[in-house]
Write a structure and sequence with these properties.
Number of strands: 7
Distance between the termini: 28 Å
Strand content: under 5%
Radius of gyration: 23 Å
Shape: globular
Largest sheet: 3 strands, mixed
Helix content: 55-70%
Strand order of the largest sheet: 4-6-5
Oligomer: single chain
Order of helices and strands: HHHHHHHEEHHHHEHEEEEHHHHHHHHHH
Length: 561
């Protein structure tokens, strides 16, 4: 058991951060629900240009207030540095105008408006009342969002045609006869019993209206935005530099990182070849992966079996690592593994609520019709999403109520820090011996290979750098990106098509995993060099995680200080 340290006195800097947190949550009901606050569960964000402007006004006012207060301790110093970095980048992005043009196949308002329903509690009739009200707000939110996209288009800022087409198809899928909205009300029960008839009818009507709103915006994306959308996926190096800083909280040399990404792909490929030989002498990497895919020792059938396996492995990791490799507070020793209600594919994590009444959760979104699952390539993902990955990282920060203000604990999230740590956590589990089985080791390496390959594709395409010789050199094209990805990633074609579209439409985000891992490893090595024989890996992890998810430059300064 890990006890809370003595409470730290609140400071003027904490007051600025907490006031910002409260105001930002009020401006974003979606964020409020994500963080576990239910008072805004019946609302959706204002996605109009005025709604975006309100967030920017809040950031400017907060930065101005920060100039009027003085840091009282090292915690304050990190808060000030992190807020200036995060809010400053928010305003740089707002000045560019591209935040208002956000439209891609994974992480734009089109998805977040739907996704938030997955996190809403459904245990009581009153909670279903809130869901019905929020569903009723979907048409207005999507109309506001379209207004913002149209205003951006008028200023010459439109997502690439590939993203517009992908999002229109998502709308069609959501509103098909057996899609999300058509079956939504049928899933509404409390303790296995149907809802009261009037509420059931309101829910059905609201789901129908929300579905119709998605159908219409999908059609209007095609008719109004697609004709204005550029065919070129590349965003250019200037826009990419800003995006990269946003996702990393650090400035990296993009040309050097591009070259390093290719070296990392080659290194991982060579290690995979050695593991393939262990799986079957003489086998190539693709041959060994085919063997693993058909090996009954790694096979699960049905989502019930999948969910039980996830839960068992996640629980076992906590039991094995607590009090030995990591200090894990009691509330974080509980994680919930669930099958997601969507069918888009992928595994993701959502953090606990402020009071841990809603635990951290690992979700698996199983594609439609998929009933067979291979554990050889997913054990490493359980460690990525659970412990020592996101669940430990996020949960430990939320737990530090007596030390950190609300913005630091719950709202500040930097992809390079978070996803970089999660990839580092996978490597740690290999270092600790949890992935010694050749099949599981191959799964970890296959995941690392994908993450390294997308560093190359993402930076190369968007910064218009020369393609690797193995795909013909010269300018990047979609076909060259596809050839490179499929040479170094081993997922299904549907998943990899989705992934490639993601890289092309969300510049800078995908590399933040592998580049973030690189920066975490560099920090560990730097601390080890400074401390010498006194270095403790367990102490390093605690010290670094206690800072919370800040930009990687801020993290480095805080740990070294």
């Amino acid at each position: 058991m890990t006890d809370q340290p003595a409470p730290r006195p609140r400071t003027p800097v904490d007051a600025v951060a907490d006031d910002y947190f409260t105001a930002a949550v009020a401006l974003s009901p979606i964020e409020a629900t994500y963080l576990g606050f239910t008072e805004h569960d019946h609302e959706i964000d204002d996605l109009s240009p005025a709604g975006y402007a309100a967030h920017d006004d809040l950031a400017r006012a907060t930065l101005a207030r920060l100039d009027t207060v003085t840091a009282q301790d090292s915690v304050d110093e990190v808060t000030v540095a992190a807020m200036r970095e995060r809010l400053g980048l928010q305003l740089e992005l707002a000045d560019s105008g591209w935040d208002r043009a956000a439209l891609n196949n994974l992480a734009s308002p089109l998805q977040s408006v739907r996704d938030i329903f997955d996190l809403m509690p459904t245990d009581t009739v009153e909670q279903w009342e809130g869901i019905a009200r929020r569903l009723g707000a979907v048409p207005t939110a999507l109309e506001q969002y379209l207004q913002t996209l149209q205003e951006s288009a008028a200023a010459g800022r439109v997502a690439a045609a590939r993203q517009v087409t992908a999002c229109a198809q998502q709308c069609a899928d959501l509103t098909s006869e057996d899609g999300y909205f058509a079956t939504f009300a049928d899933r509404a029960t409390v303790d296995g019993e149907p809802l009261p008839r009037p509420l059931q009818e309101r829910l059905r009507q609201a789901a129908g209206a929300a579905g119709e709103a998605y159908r219409q915006i999908g059609q209007r994306l095609t008719s109004e935005l697609l004709p204005l959308a550029p065919d070129n996926d590349a965003v250019g190096i200037e826009r990419y530099r800003l995006a990269s800083r946003g996702f990393l909280g650090a400035t990296v040399d993009l040309a050097e990182t591009y070259a390093w990404g290719q070296e990392e792909v080659a290194r991982i490929t060579a290690e995979m070849a050695l593991i393939a030989e262990q799986i079957r002498p003489g086998a190539s990497v693709p041959d060994s992966i085919e063997i693993l895919r058909h090996d009954p020792a790694y096979r699960l059938t049905g989502t019930d079996e999948l969910q039980a396996w996830m839960q068992g492995k996640a629980d076992q990791a906590i039991a094995d690592l607590a009090d030995t490799h990591f200090d894990i507070p009691d509330p974080i020793r509980r994680i919930e593994c669930r099958i997601a209600p969507t069918q888009t594919g992928g595994i993701y994590y959502t953090g606990p609520s402020d009071d841990f009444s809603r635990p951290g959760r690992m979700w698996w979104s199983v594609p439609k019709g998929e009933t067979e699952f291979g554990t050889w390539n997913e054990l490493t993902t359980v460690y990525h999403e659970g412990v020592p990955g996101h669940h430990l990282q996020v949960g430990q920060t939320v737990y530090r109520r007596e030390q950190l203000n609300n913005w630091r604990r719950m709202m500040c999230w930097v992809s390079g820090h978070g996803e970089g740590w999660a990839l580092y956590a996978e490597q740690l589990m290999a270092e600790f011996g949890f992935l010694d089985d050749p099949g599981n080791r191959m799964g970890m390496l296959a995941a690392q290979s994908l993450r390294a390959a997308r560093v190359v594709i993402d930076i190369g395409v968007h910064c218009e750098l020369p393609a690797p010789d193995e795909v013909g050199g010269g300018d990047w094209t979609y076909d060259k990106a596809w050839a490179y990805l499929t040479a170094h990633a081993f997922e299904s074609e549907a998943m990899l098509r989705f992934e490639l579209t993601r890289y092309l439409g969300w510049p800078g985000q995908a590399p933040s995993y592998k580049v973030g891992q690189r920066l975490w490893l560099e920090l560990r090595d730097e601390v080890r060099t400074i401390e010498g024989d006194a270095f403790s890996l367990k102490d390093f992890h605690k010290r670094a995680l206690d800072v919370g998810s800040v930009g990687l430059d801020v993290l480095r300064d805080a740990v070294l200080r």
